[in-house]
Give the backbone structure.
Amino acid sequence: MSVLEVSDLSVSYATRDGPVPAVRGVSFDIDRGQVLGLAGESGCGKSTIGLGLLRLLPRGTEMAGRAVLNGADVLAMAPSALGAVRWTQASVVFQGAQHALDPVIRVGDQIEEAILAHRSLTRRQTTARTAELLELVGLPARRAKDFPNEFSGGQKQRVMIAMALACDPDLVIADEPTTALDVMVQAQVLRLLKSLQMELGLSMLFITHDLSVLAQVADRLAVMYAGRIVEEGPAEEVFGSPAHPYTAALAGAFPRIGDEAFVQAPGGLDGDPPDPRDLPTGCSFHPRCPRVMDRCRTIEPPSFPAGTGHRAECLLLEQGAPESMPT
Amino acid sequence: MSATPPASESAGASGVPLLRVEDLHVTFAGRHRVFERQGRASARAVDGVSLEIEEGEIVALAGESGCGKTTLARAIMGFVRPEHGTIEFRGKPLGKDLRGYRREVQMVYQDPTGALNPRQTVYDSVVEGLRIHKVPGDEAELVDRALARAGLRPPERFLLRFPHELSGGQRQRVVIAGALALEPRVIVADEPVSNLDASVRGEILRLLLQLRRDSRISILIVTHDLALAWSVADRVAVMYLGRIVEVGPTRDVLLEPRHPYTRALLDVVPDAQDVGAIDRPLLTGEPPDPTRIPEACRFHPRCPALADGRAAEAGVEGACRSDDPRLDPIVAGHLAACHLAHRRPSGFRVP
Amino acid sequence: MANHTTGVPTGTKRSSRSVVWERRRQAASRFWATYRRSGMGLAGLAILVAFALMALLAPLLVSREALDVTRVDGPILASPSWEYPMGTDESGRSVFALVVWGARVSLAIGLLAAVVSMVVGATVGIVSGYRGGRWDAALMRFTDWFLVLPSLPLAITLAAILGQSMFIIVMVIGLTFWPWTARIVRSQTLSVRERPYVERARGLGASDRQLIPRHVLPNVFPVIFAQTILSIAAAILAESALSFIGLGDPLRVSWGGTLELAFDAGAPTIGAWWWIGFPGACIVLVVLAFTMCGNALEEILNPRLRQR
């Protein structure tokens, strides 16, 4: 039973020099109660997807394809219908969420604002719900009357999570929720997200560049590069036997403590992530690929199977047998 | 206050470490406004640190925000003046005039975009140091050489570009080239790759390793990322609330940590192969605040070993609550500031 | 990234310099293209150009003799006509002549005073902002003192001691305006000082003397420039006011001075609206024009446009 079915989603930003394709035909599903990790670096389009799913992108941005949330296509909805869907069926924990709180308004009031924007409840009901939400994220209810500057970074992040859960959504889109947090606080927030997700049966789209974080929370993993999903599959399998050279290289950029292979040998790639305005021909990864073949320069690889529920867009898979990349 | 290992225990051949920090204290004064009920207390950002760096050594200075690692780096660079303690380079303490010192000790910054003047070309940014110190020789050739060493080849392609025309990784290489132009002996790198894309980080780190290999440049890397330390550092120093709580060879510190804080940090490092990490116990208590450093052992309010009775078992509980532990050797070259660690030398091994 | 070759194969000191100049030219033309889009800025610029031409070409437009009361023979207090487009004053002088020649004095004093206030203000602001600490505290107290100095009593006092002249007016205005510039420049300097590339330069070993011209000044200059334009407007207004109350140079014709004469002669009562109206309108127009240009500039310079 899918909460979200995305088919062939494409997004282009309007710029002075013409439309820039940030997302180029992306498809994925998220089942009820499942966490899909969306991994990639800057310019790959992952944040665009996160915001685009609720149509929060700037005016003039072109979107094509379908994003079916609980049976209705969000991209085709009228604005009024969209307003009813936003926050009640799907909500967002934004990137840099710690700075998304208004410093002169009490935290409790900001949460109430999120509730009242989508639900009509009495005063008492709203206050009670706010208290409930704060407790849910591990903060005492009495802190509702405090201002954002009285909270630490990790605590502010919890407030943002509380806000995202205000209207009982089915899907939470978390865009880099733990970037910029200390490793200890990051662990706390990840733990919270995971437990909430299990407790409330939430589906989650967890967007981040940090692959190692995704290993802790994601059930399935989708790796993006230059606007396309280049590999997707069960998290364990994608980590354990990546089928796409980029996935292997990206995993290599997060050294594992204790693994001798990384001593004095930091992983990573040469070159830079491509500029969406100036994509390479053929497979967009070919200039940096350690296993590039001649055909890669001219042919855009379609999706090939690489295991059960596991696929990758790489010509190396064309023969049928899934190739395991050296990690 | 903290003991330093004798020079013979360190790796250097000369006996005198290249860079030596002794009992350094850096305090940021609080603000006491007349009409405010509550001013801000002073923050002891660096609270008694001693550290030595040998020639050709890569040392990682690790810790969370507020531990003082960046302040320590900036004090070593001479950007902040310590209240107490000495910094010695080649055996001589830093004087008032830092010009000569600045040729030998250079910095690489966390934000390569901010670190380059947007109105200056790559050539201007790299040549700046040469002109400041009036280095003799053909300017253009020296710039070319520095850019090539930093991995920007061919240099001509980059000379006339502006920073906004370069990628993040290239900008960082320009900053490194600017430092290399002065032929430094030490590079202090403050989170040199945390603002860069993950796949690009390896390049820059490999460059630093190469500089150490080819030119015996010593590197002090400030980082919050222990996995990064694993992949590049010879030695790791873990800081907590202004003090080094553990220091030693990378393998020893990261695989057999002696200090409970190091253990706690390692437990929460996310690891693609170790999905169980999310279930391990976390540190409780207030996050570290340099304006309110606890008495006695500064880690004791949050220490899991104290909380679960291991400290009491070993008979050090009283000491944890009353005495500030010194950074003393457990074995040669591996030091920890922990009463329990000295009582029980076997360490907290990785299961 | 688009193609950015510059066509210069090898890097030498000279080529880098020429590329920087080329980039500066490009930045200037981009700046002009942006400025052109501001209707307000263009209108202001047009007015200023018109007045500047008028002031510069004064001798060609009207002979200086038209200002000499002993040499004119026009009708007294005549309302505007074909022969005297702006009418005449009580001595028979053409008001048009007064306006044209007055432009020279008013604009010159305004510009000079603004330059004085900019030079003093920018110096104080940069030193104060860059040095910080005790220098900053002392200089800011010094600035505050001048900030509260009332221009009128100062003008009267100076006039009494040193006599009345253009120099005095310029001094008075300069002395009372520089604190504004100083404060704005100081705050910009403070923000530039904290920028990472300034610290990097220090880390490379630069002394203050090397840092300020290379990194601080170029980034503070745009603010200074916009501020100067606005202070010219204020200076012209101040000159007119001071001349109006009789503290101007009695030997020179300025717009404010003309207004003074007009009021002394009771022009409002007589109904000689042209004598007051035309000089007054000029003051208003010029001040408005400078303000419009200054505002257009500020809009362009803050927030900083990232070149792309």
